[in-house]
Amino acid sequence: MIRILVLEDDKLFNETLEDFLEEEGFTLHCVLDPYTALDFTYENNYDLYLFDVNLPYETGFELLEKLRSSGDNTPCIFITSRDDKVSLRVGFEQGGDDYITKPVDLETFAIKAVEECLDLDLAEEVWTPLKVSEYILDVV
After folding, report:
1. Which of 117, 63, 122 is nearest to 95 (CA)?
2. Strand, coil or helix: what is 41?
3. Fold of 3-137
4. Dihedrals φ, ψ of 80, to 5°?
């Protein structure tokens, strides 16, 4: 089971992501602010982080920088309305693995999330093929 921490301060979009990704078979913790997200990273192990960039208190970039400096190498996908090249560069420089701009096609996002997790060698675990919409993803 793929475990994802979702950090999105837009409550409606947060709930939309939660509903869609749970329906696709992911296990989620969804939070609205970076402080709660940081607490969750201390208490749980995740296969993937999904962080918005524009957040109250600090950016998703800053949160990931803290996590990376503490040795946390969990893959992270930034999902944001920022579509400029400077933000894209900052996202990757802070350790982001992918960068998706809003509006988001949820099926495409789910496939990208699975691809990031497959790079983690989850094949070593007991793996059950994952169905994302009409696609079935399996480890070969």
Report:
1. 63
2. helix
3. Rossmann fold (3.40.50)
4. -155, 160
